Amino acid sequence: MSDDDTRNKKTLKEGLPRDERAEGGSNGNVPEAPFSERDAAILADKAQDHAGAKPMAHTPHGKEDIAEGAKPVPRADSDDEEPLGTYKKIDPQDRESGAHRGPARKHDDPKTKALKPKMRPALLLAEYRTPGECMHAAEKLRDAGYTKFDAHTPFPVHGMDRAMGLPDSKLGWIVIAMGLTGTTLAFTMMYWMNNVDYPIVIGGKPPTIASVPSMIPIMFELTILLSAFGAVFGMFHLNRLPRHHHPVFESDRFRAFSNDKFFLSVEVEDPKFKLDRTRELLDKTHPSHVELVEEEV
C-alpha cells in the first residue's frame, strides 16, 4: 500500500466518530474501501470540524477559507456542477440589498399590495335596542335636514315613515295610470275591430257605441293586468331594484336587524353628510353602537 493510501486511511479513521470507528473491528481498523481524493478531502474537513478548526471550501482552484456569511450549496446531480461542501461567496452589494435571501415573500410583493381593494366610506350605521329609540333617532336626522338615510327593523314600525319625513308613495299614481291605460286600450281595440275595421252584428247588437256592455269583460281584464304590471315594476323602480349588494351588508352587526335589533344608516351621498358631524349627531341619539361601513372603490 502506498504512502498516500495510508495517509487517507488515517484521515478517514480520525474523521469518523468514535462509534463508527468501533464498528471497523476490535483493533479499531476501518475496513478498506476505494474512495477518491475528493472524498478524502471532505473527510479531512470533517475531522477539522471536530477539532475546532476553521472549515475550508473546496473549489476547482483548491481550498479556500469560507467567507463570513457564505451559504453551502447542496450536492449537484451532475458532475458539471460544484460538489458537496462547496460554498459560494456573497457579494457585499447583495448582502446590503438582501438579494442573497431569495425572492421577496408574497405579502411583501408590490404587485400583491396593488391587488388589494381600495376602500372608501359608504355609510354610518347606528344600532338601537328598541323601536322607540330608533324612531326618535330618525326624527333627529329628519330635523337636521338629512334625506338619504334608511331604517332597518325586524318588523314594520308604525309611524316610522312620518318620523323619517317620507312623503306619500308615488306607487298609487303609477298603478292608476296603468289601469286607465288598460281600460282605454281594451275599448279602443274592440271598437276598432267590431265597428270600423270589420263591422259585424253579434246577438242583434248593432256595431255602434251601444255595444259597450259586451266590451266590459275585456276592458276589466286589461285594466287589472296593466295595473298589476305597474305596481310590480313601479315598486322596483322606486326602490332602485334589483340591487344585488348594498354596503350595509359589510357590517357583521347588521345581521341582527332581522332578529331583535333596530338600525339607522346614513349614506355618504347625503348632501348634509359630514363624517364627524353626522357621527356626533348619531351619538346624541344614544345608540348602543355606531360604526363606519366601507365599500370597495
Automatic annotation (TrEMBL):
Q: Keywords for this entry?
A: Membrane, Transmembrane, Transmembrane helix
Listed Basic and acidic residues bias regions? 1-23, 35-52, 88-112
The regions listed as transmembrane in this protein's record are 171-194, 214-236
Taxonomically, the superkingdom here is Bacteria
The keyword Protein transport appears for this protein: no
Q: Where is this region: Disordered?
A: 1-116
User: What is the protein name stated in its UniProt record?
Assistant: DUF3341 domain-containing protein
State the organism named in the record. Answer: Pendulispora brunnea
